[in-house]
Batch of 3 targets.
Target 1
Amino acid sequence: MKGKFLQFILGVLTGAALFGGASAVAAGIAAEPAWSPIFVDGQQVQMTAYNILGNNYVKLRDIGKAVGFNVYFQGGVQVDSKAPYTGEAPAKPAEFTDDLTEVRQEMIRLINQVRRENGVAELAVSTALMDAAQDCVRQGFRSHDVQYENESALRHGYSHGIGSNLTVFTYNCNTDIAQTAVSHWRYSPGHFQTMIAERYDGIGVGVMLRDDVAYCYMFAGNSNGVNPYA
């Protein structure tokens, strides 16, 4: 019922103005109060309605309250049919700071869990690789820049060979950033091989959240490998 009702109402309200007084005039068209009863699932509800050219209009936020979906303003009118009505934009994870410590720790835990499940040793956390990975996410890369990645590792004190994983995805308040990133890598053959390769013995991860987009890097260090840009 909710989905069909919402679809119908959104169609009716496309382009409609929202009015606040006993009557209003928009672009020379009069809007008068409408007194017809309104029912939702057989129960009468109270909504302020207006009649414009023979059609009844109600406030979208009033429909959200009665039917049970959220309506709020954030760069435009937003409708979230999966969330209860609050009239407020949903809380988002904190925007990027240098202190997404818990997310980064959880990424490392999940990566090492994948390695254990595949019979290889866990990776030891490298401060240099952590700093290099965080440096790379700050660049907002959506694809690998191999030279920058390797030079970043050198700048932050890691002079050996590295492998890297990168994933970029949109997120909301319900997204588990660490789990999503590691899942992306687990189910991508090339990224998965980087996670479980026996030649790696060190790890660093970086996370940035910006404009509803998560940027996640994994640096895997090979202490017996050579950095081609050294």
Target 2
Amino acid sequence: MKFIIVFVALFAFALAAPNRDAETLRYDTDIDPLSYKFGLETSNGIRTNEEGQVKDVGSEDEAIVVRGSYSYIGDDGVTYSVNYIADKNGFQPQGAHIPVA
């Protein structure tokens, strides 16, 4: 459960890594025992928003459901956007540039 949160957060921050000159314009967090929200925007065009919530608390089916999005400007100047859900079915990204099986 925590792995998904850490993975998605690290993935979002990894997008910002190549341009070390980028400044953080916005960073919001709201963390509770059973949910969280965060948002990030940098000067190089990266934006991410995410929220997670524990579902079925105390049951055998207890799991975290994460919903979010991120966008960035590619080397070609195009803004790429991804919306995703991460839950018991895995990481499910959707974006115009992502191939569909």
Target 3
Amino acid sequence: MASRFRIGAALLGATVALTLSALPAQAEVKITPDRGGQEQGHDVHLKSSDPEPKFKKETTWVIKLRIEDDKDRSNVLAYCVELPTPLKDGDVLKEVPWKDHPGSGTKFKENAGKILWILNRSYPNKPVKEVRDAFKIKDLDKQDVIAATQAALWHFSDNFGLDVDNKQNDPQVIELYKKFVAEATSEEEVKPTLSIDPTSLDGKPGQKLGPFTVKTTATEVKLTGNLPAGVTIVDKNGTPLEVKQKADGLSIKGLENITEFYVNVPEGTADGEASFKLSAQADIAVGRLFVASNGDNTKSAQSLVVAQPQKAKVEKEAKASWKAAGVPPTTTTTTTATTTTTTTDTTPPATTSTTPANPAPGGGEDDLASTGASILWPLLGGLVLVGAGVGALFVVRRKKAGA
């Protein structure tokens, strides 16, 4: 019976060669600001937690963003978790794990689980009425909930929280804010929309390359790509995984928490690589972190957390490469005229290091590493070595004939 790992009904597998076709560019979930539908909360007066506190006033919003390249123009709703960084219309935000929050001196990484707790119990993930009933606050409206939620997130992500002594803050906002801060408990980071780790591995023929670990919120992921003949996708024991072949690729159904697979490269396989693409229709989960960068991609422009789940199409690529170990270079020495008859045991090398390895399927000149040296010189060197070997054999035979 074929080996299974925890992915439910149909398993990722490859005992057959996949279509040898070019893969499209990697597609990640990217979102951009959409100013048309933002929902505004009350302004809030904040106070820093410094020994000598600073004070500031901020406007609160449920921020509306649009998924790039989405024909349905699906929207993602989010809150800010980085002060005082502005969000600009041209910013493009990408999904990253919590540990990659770029803010320096913030508290997001240590408090991200509490931020998730608040998001799971607040608007827009929950209706305002449900928030009002859960926290037993009368006359709580949408603007109150947005303001209290954003202020509580800044309390846990930045150095500022609501100034509860400032009478300009709405009483309902203060009451809900206090309950959020006091009751929040850390929750585990939610699964990414789709990720594969690592995206690239190198090895040698005769090895299982991996594991490749897949995490996703999707219940079905499709695998397509390039897999040379004889190379299979296997489990940790080396057993080829069951194949459920579809017209658009292999299917993985019932994905649970983590799925792992390996690329098995038999001994003697020509140097090459297996490349594959995972694609899915998945949920961008509440609490996922999106980060924008400025034009040169070196500095943070803004960090937002998703406040309501949203479906998105996503693709990820990965590859495994293998190359046989090179033949050690042969060292030659010059013999003198005192060579005795024991030199008859000396034979020229059977092969030389100039023999080219079998090329990878579909390889071209773009697949070769550029070293800045011409291939002509190693070729001439190989011919010289072969010629020297032939000459040595001829001398040995002449000596034997004259003995």
